[in-house]
Amino acid sequence: MQRKEKKNEKKIDGKGLKIGVVVAEFNWDITGKMAEGAVEFLKKSGVESDDIDVVKVPGAFELPLMCKKMVVSGKFDALVALGCVIKGDTDHYYYVAGEASRGIMDVMIELGVPIGFGVITTNNLEQAEERSSGKSNKGFEAAEAALVMVENLKKI
Ligand code: INI
């Protein structure tokens, strides 16, 4: 599936912004590509390489704590949280995906710093590959959402 074009899409100016990319190492074949997509978008938007910190965590379950620590440090204008949870034969998927998503939202709402949500949840590896490559790379999209939110929050 192709990335949906947004109405009135305009170039975001990321110059001077400090962005953290938090990426789960679980399913690295997928999340590594998502991290590349996120960094590519940030650089394309003017964020300097030195202002992009990529931090790894073991799995999606660990994303919220690292996001919280990074936001509390006060160093970042926004974060991008990346993970890939693939459905297996047990209920584990629901706990990992559900808690990652709830935890990231809690950090964002409590601390008021935008976090682009790039945790993909899929039925199989094939779907995960689709969502981590080319124009459908969800890392790219999550980075875009983070920068848009920085800009929009400034206007409030
Ligand atoms: N972590 C993921 O990021 N994706 C998964 O699909 C996954 N599955 O299926 O188990 C997963 N599990 C590990 C989890 O995120 C924690 O790292 C682990 O439970 C240790 O706390």
- The gyration radius over C-alpha positions equals 15 Å
In whole angstroms, the N-to-C terminal distance is 34 Å
Taking the sheet with the most strands, its summary is: 4 strands, parallel
Strand order of the largest sheet: 2-1-3-4
SSE topology sketch:
Layout: E1 19-24, H1 28-44, E2 52-57, H2 63-72, E3 78-86, H3 92-111, E4 115-122, H4 125-130, H5 138-154
Helix pairs in contact: 1-5, 2-3
Description:
With 156 residues, the protein is α/β, with parallel strands linked by helices. The protein has one domain (19-154): Lumazine/riboflavin synthase (Rossmann fold, 3-Layer(aba) Sandwich). It contains 5 helices and 4 strands; from the N terminus they run E-H-E-H-E-H-E-H-H. Strands 2-1-3-4 form a 4-stranded parallel beta sheet, sandwiched between helices. Helix 1 packs across helix 5 (138-154). The mean pLDDT is 94. The structure holds 5-nitro-6-ribityl-amino-2,4(1H,3H)-pyrimidinedione (INI).
